[in-house]
Amino acid sequence: MSEVTSPLPLPAFKGSTVRVSVMNTGYLVTPSTIFVQSPRPGHDTADVPIYSFLVENERVGKKVLFELGIMKAWKEKLPHLVSAVQSFSGTVNVTEDVPDKLNAASVSLSSIDSAIWSHHHPVHTGDLSLFPTSTSLVVGPGFKSNPSTYPGKPLGPNAETLHEAFEGREVIELDFSSSASTLEIVGLRAIDWFDDGSFYLLEAPGHTANHIMALARTSADKFVLLAGAAAHHGGEIRPTPLTPLPDTISPSPFEPPTSASSCPSSLFQSIHPSPESFRTTPFYEASAHHIDDPVTRIATLDAVKAFDASPDVLVILSHDASLLEVLEFFPKADLAGWEKQPSRKDMGRWRFLKDFRKGVLKE
C-alpha cells in the first residue's frame, strides 16, 4: 500500500518566515495508561521528552516561546505535580530548564517578547517567574475565567498554576471569535500572530478547554505544526486513510533513522487493536485522563491528522519521544530545511513503532 499525501489549503506566503528551535527540557516517565488506552504489548511505560520551542521572526525582530516545558524547581514549587507523579509511580527528570538553556546560549531572557502556553498543565508552563515582566504571557480562550487556571496559587487555592507567573505581567487571552480573527486553517480558527503569515496560533480544544497549537512557516511553502498535547504518541495520529502504513517501512523503526534499513509492516498487524484495518487505523486512543471534551478533541485530532498527511507540514507533539533521534536541538540547529532529503518527516513518521519492539520481536 502506497502512502497518500493530502493537498492542504495552507496560508499563502506573504514574504516572512520564522526560525524554530526545539529544546528538550527534561523527561517524564509514567505508565503508558496515563496517556493512552490499552497500551500495546511491550509498551507498558512511557518515557517521554518535554519540548519547548523558540520561535524567532527576524523581519519584525521578535522572539517568542511556544511551550515552556518543565521548571527545574518543580519539587519545591509544584506540590500538586509531586503528588500526581507519586500517585502513578512516575518520575520527572530535569537538569536544565528553558531559562538555563537560553542563558547558556547567550539568549537574554529579556529578549523574549512573549511566552505562549499551549495549555496550563505544569509540564508545559515552565517557570515564567524567572523572566522579566516585559515578557507577556499568551493563553488560550477561557483561561482567565477558570479558577483552576487563574489567578493561580495561592490566590486560587485549587488552581493548577502559580500566581507568580502572572504577577506584574500582561496576560493576553486569545479571542478567536473576535471580528479581527476570521481566519481558519484546516477547519481551526486561527490568529496570524505577527500579522505577516509566518506564525499562526490555532484554537485546538479537547485536551483542555484552553488548548492551542501553533503553525510556524519555516520556508515559503513548508511549515511545522507545534501540536502541544493534542496527542501524546504518534500512534494516536497514525496510520490513517490519508497516511496509511506502507507494506515496507523504511527506515525500520528499530534501526537508526538515517539507515537504509526496512521492515515489513505486517510485523505489527497482530498487536494492532483492529488487525483487519491495521494499515489505516491509529494504534491508540487517548486515555480519559487527557480528554477534557471528547467532542472538540475529535475535531482537533482530525485537523492534526490532516496536517500530518501533508508533505508540507512537519508535526511535532510536545512529548513525542519518537523524534528524539530525528530532530536536532537548540542551540545546535533549528528546523529550517526539515524537508531536505532524507527529510525529518520521512525519518520520523513510523518511528513510534519502536515502542512496540518487545511485542513484535522475539529476542
UniProtKB/TrEMBL annotation:
Residues 236-269 are annotated as: Disordered. GO terms for molecular function: hydrolase activity; metal ion binding. This is Metallo-beta-lactamase domain-containing protein. It comes from Lactarius akahatsu. Gene3D superfamilies: Ribonuclease Z/Hydroxyacylglutathione hydrolase-like. Residues 258-269 have a biased composition (Polar residues). The lineage of its organism: Eukaryota, Fungi, Dikarya, Basidiomycota, Agaricomycotina. Belongs to the metallo-beta-lactamase superfamily. Keywords: Hydrolase, Metal-binding, Zinc.
